[in-house]
Please model this.
Amino acid sequence: MKDDALWCILERPPHYFEILGDVGDVVFSETLLEQAHGVHFFAVRRQDLQERIEEMAQAIFPDGMLWLSWYKKSSKKWTDIDEDLIRSVIFPLGLVDVKVCAVDADWSGLKVVWRKERRNLNRS
Model:
């Protein structure tokens, strides 16, 4: 996260900012804004992801990033999301995943961006 970047953090776990540590002069919003450098969405239910993905994708267009997080299987917490499901939702929109990581002991994260050929198109 770069200084002065605007990030929307949606449905975050209570300890989110402890996970991040010091991020400098990043500006955070807990609501989705029309335009942001990044969005981090913590999804538990497939339905929530499917309902919000298009608006989150538009918020980061053309060159921002979207982190989509879900409960790891090892967390033993219920979810109907995994990285394959996320890919099945994002690919048809012109988004692609470029990185996967462990956010903490319970959450995984997939970094998502617009495909290069889509970045030059006008906002729809």
Remarks:
- Helices lie at 16-20, 46-59, 83-90, 116-119.
- The two ends are 26 Å apart (CA to CA).
- Residues 46-59 form the longest helix (14 residues).
- DSSP finds four helices and six strands in the chain.
